C-alpha cells in the first residue's frame, strides 16, 4: 500500500465531504484523493478508472446480499498504484465524493469555456 | 484551477463512451455481414456473397475510423467483444431484410451521437461524424434497393437467381 503523500505543490480544493476530499495540483496535472485514511495521487486516466470502478459496484445488490461474506469490496485499478479495500458504507461515501468531484470539474470546464474562450 | 480533463482530451467522457459503443456496433455489423456472406455462398448466391464480403470489409474500416479518432483526440479506444452472431437464415430474402434493419439501427445510433455533440457543442466530433451520415445514406439506399429486387423481379421460377445477379450491380451515385 502506498503511504500517505505529503504536499509539495499548491493544491486547489475540488470537493470535500465529511468523509474525504479531492484536491487538484495544476503543476503536477493530477489529483490527490484523501479517503479511507490515505492520500493517493491520481492522474487523469487513473481518476477516470477509479470513477468507473466505483460507479460499477452495484450497491443495492450488495445490500440485499444475504450471504455471510463480509461486506467488503476491493477496488483495484489496473496500471494505477492504488488499491482500496472498502466496506459498503465507505463505498457509498467514495461514490458521493467522486460524484461531487466530477460535477466540480465539469463546472470548472464550463467556466473555462465561458470565461477564457 | 486548470481544466485538466480538457487538456488531456478533446472529447468529453460521455462522447468517448458513445464512440466506443459505436466501435462495437461497427465491429458487430462487420461480423454479421461476414455471416451473411457465408450463408449466401453456401446456398449458391455468389453475387450476394461477394456483396456481403465487401460490406463486411467496409464496416471494418468504419470501426477503425472511429477507433483512431478516439485515440487521436486523447481518449481510450476499447477493442470490442463481438458475440451472438446469427449464423443461419430462413430465406434469401430474410438476409436482406436484416441487412436493412441493421443499417437503420446504425444510422439511428450515429444520429444519437450527433445529438449529444450538439448538446455539448462538440463541433469537432460533429464534423467527423458528417462523413458517416453521408455514408449511411449510401448504406441504406443499397440495402433498400436490394430488397426492392425481390418485389420487382419476384422470387418465383428463376427469380432468386436473377435477384442474386442484380445484387452485384447495385450502386449509389448521388451528386448531392
Ligand atoms: Fe458502418
Ligand atoms: Fe453499413
Describe this structure in words.
The complex is a heterodimer of chains A (117) and B (176). Chain A is of the alpha+beta class and 117 residues long. Chain A has one domain. Helices cover 40% and strands 26% of the residues of chain A. In chain A, the strands form 2 sheets. Chain A has a 4-stranded antiparallel sheet. Chain A has a two-stranded antiparallel sheet with strand order 5-6. With 176 residues, chain B is mainly α. Chain B has one domain (9-167): Ferritin (Up-down Bundle), CATH 1.20.1260. Chain B is 74% helix and 0% strand. Chain B has 6 helices and no strands. In chain B, helix 5 (123-153) packs antiparallel against helix 6. The longest helix of chain B has 31 residues, at 123-153. Chain B is elongated, with a radius of gyration of 19 Å. The termini of chain B are far apart. Classes of the chains: A alpha+beta (117), B mainly alpha (176). The structure holds fe (ii) ion (2 copies).
The Rg value of chain B, from CA coordinates, equals 19 Å
Poorly predicted spans of chain A:
none
Describe the main β-sheet of chain B briefly.
Answer: none
Q: How much β-strand is present in the residues of chain B?
A: under 5%
Q: What's the helix count of chain A?
A: 3
Q: Which bin fits the share of residues in helices of chain B?
A: over 70%
CATH hierarchy, class of chain B: Mainly Alpha
Strand order of the largest sheet of chain A: 1-2-3-4
Radius of gyration of chain A from CA coordinates: 15 Å
What ligand species are in this complex?
fe (ii) ion
- The number of distinct structural domains of chain A comes to 1
Overall form of chain B: elongated
* Tally of DSSP β-strands of chain B: 0
The computed structural class of chain A is: alpha+beta
Q: Cα distance, first to last residue of chain B?
A: 47 Å
Total domain count of chain B: 1
Secondary-structure arrangement, i.e. CATH architecture of chain B: Up-down Bundle
Uncertain spans of chain B, ≥5 residues at pLDDT below 50? Answer: none
N to C succession of SSEs of chain A: EEEEHHEEH
Amino acid at each position: 500500500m502506498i503511504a500517505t503523500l505529503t504536499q509539495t505543490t499548491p493544491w486547489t480544493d475540488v470537493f470535500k465531504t465529511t468523509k474525504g476530499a479531492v484536491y487538484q495540483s495544476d503543476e503536477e496535472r493530477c489529483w490527490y484523493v484523501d479517503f479511507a485514511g490515505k492520500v493517493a495521487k491520481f492522474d487523469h486516466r487513473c481518476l477516470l478508472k477509479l470513477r468507473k470502478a466505483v460507479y460499477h459496484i452495484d450497491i443495492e445488490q450488495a445490500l440485499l446480499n444475504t450471504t455471510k461474506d463480509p461486506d467488503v469490496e476491493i477496488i483495484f485499478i489496473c496500471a494505477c498504484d492504488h488499491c482500496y479495500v472498502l466496506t459498503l458504507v465507505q463505498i457509498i461515501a467514495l461514490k458521493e465524493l467522486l460524484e461531487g468531484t466530477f460535477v466540480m470539474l465539469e463546472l470548472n470546464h464550463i467556466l473555462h469555456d465561458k470565461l477564457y474562450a | 484551477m486548470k481544466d485538466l480533463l480538457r487538456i488531456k482530451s478533446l472529447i468529453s467522457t460521455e462522447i468517448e463512451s458513445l464512440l466506443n459503443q459505436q466501435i462495437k456496433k461497427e465491429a458487430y455489423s462487420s461480423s454479421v455481414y461476414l455471416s451473411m456472406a457465408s450463408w449466401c455462398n453456401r446456398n449458391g448466391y455468389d453475387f450476394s456473397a461477394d456483396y456481403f464480403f465487401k460490406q463486411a470489409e467496409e464496416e471494418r474500416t468504419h470501426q477503425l475510423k472511429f477507433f483512431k479518432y478516439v485515440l487521436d483526440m486523447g481518449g481510450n479506444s476499447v477493442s470490442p467483444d463481438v458475440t451472438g452472431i446469427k449464423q443461419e437464415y430462413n430465406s434469401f430474402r430474410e438476409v436482406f431484410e436484416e441487412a436493412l434493419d441493421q443499417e437503420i439501427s446504425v444510422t439511428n445510433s450515429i444520429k444519437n451521437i450527433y445529438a449529444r455533440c450538439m448538446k455539448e457543442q462538440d463541433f469537432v466530433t460533429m464534423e467527423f461524424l458528417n462523413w458517416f451520415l453521408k455514408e449511411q445514406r449510401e448504406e441504406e439506399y443499397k440495402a433498400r434497393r436490394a430488397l426492392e429486387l425481390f418485389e420487382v423481379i419476384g422470387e418465383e421460377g428463376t427469380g432468386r437467381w436473377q435477384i442474386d445477379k442484380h445484387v452485384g450491380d447495385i450502386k449509389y451515385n448521388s451528386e448531392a
